[in-house]
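Q: I'm writing up a methods section and want to include an example of the input and output format. Could you take the sequence below and give the corresponding predicted structure tokens, formatted cleanly so I can copy it straight into the document?
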Amino acid sequence: MLYYLLTSLMDDVSAFNVFRYLTTRTGGAILTALFFIFVFGPRIIALLRIKQGRGQPIRGDGPQRHIVEKQGTPTMGGLMILSGTFVSTILWADLSNLYVWAVIFVTLGFGAIGFYDDFLKVTRSTTKGFSGKARLLVEFLIAGVAVACFMWIGDKPLSSSLAVPFFKSVLIPFGSFFILVGVIVIVGAGNAVNITDGLDGLAIVPVMIAAASYGMIVYLVGNAVFAEYLQVHYVKGTGELAVICGALVGAGLGFLWFNAPPAMIFMGDTGSLALGGALGAIAVAVKHEIVLAIIGGLFVLETVSVIVQVVSFKMTGKRVFAMAPLHHHFEQKGWKEPTIVIRFWIIAFVLALIGLSTLKLR
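A: Here is the clean output for your methods example:
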């Protein structure tokens, strides 16, 4: 909205010409989302605390200190992140861009699934929420619609192929079956972030790092000149997704203010599913699906730790980790929560640098 308003005044006020630039609008999206959460965050937290009473139910089989330290903390903080991201995107993005609407659709759709899951947990005072199979089915449907949209918008055969990092011209063609590939990426990303969200501030900073990384990627890939220079596949129109990436970073910073240890609020499935889904959708849109596994490598490690733990216990009756996901393993080993969180942030930052290096190493 602001994009259209300010650019329409360019003829009268030449200074408004700056708002045509994607970098300016991305910066505006960051600041707008951050400001929105700073202003409305305390009110949202107060309302959720009143509505939820005892807050998010704590796992009885998890670390025992969580029952003491985290009991009563409200959840559904993802509502803060989603509202800040949505408002900021609507204000600063070019709303005629279909990539923007497809990513918003996934983000809000996954957020709605997470909200329903959190609602069931809070109202029933249990850690069991939405049926796993039903939840996955809805996630697959939402992701499938978005991927089909990406394939329809994009140029063939690129839009239905999987790009391989480090190789400038290698594409793995999937045709119509690419819908399944894209869906797996988006759903996998959503649930991987969901698994990682277990300690104060643990998930939100790696999400911001990934969003900032993809903000750079979409800006370069969506620009024909930069894409040719870097020898990456040019995807027309995806540059506008930098505004959403910026909004995610700004909203994440605002949320971290309240989620820093000791957390005043948890993002819950409302936030983690939505944020992961957004990252997955952006990765698919910009044809950097495999790179997401590198930049979001921390989320992959957390998910793999759960899979390994379950498979090992079912096959041998033994556990590989003291507790899964991985962050709980280190808790059981005696690491303090801030130590785990900060070290995982460092890992996420290093992996993001490696992922970004794929833009040049070809």
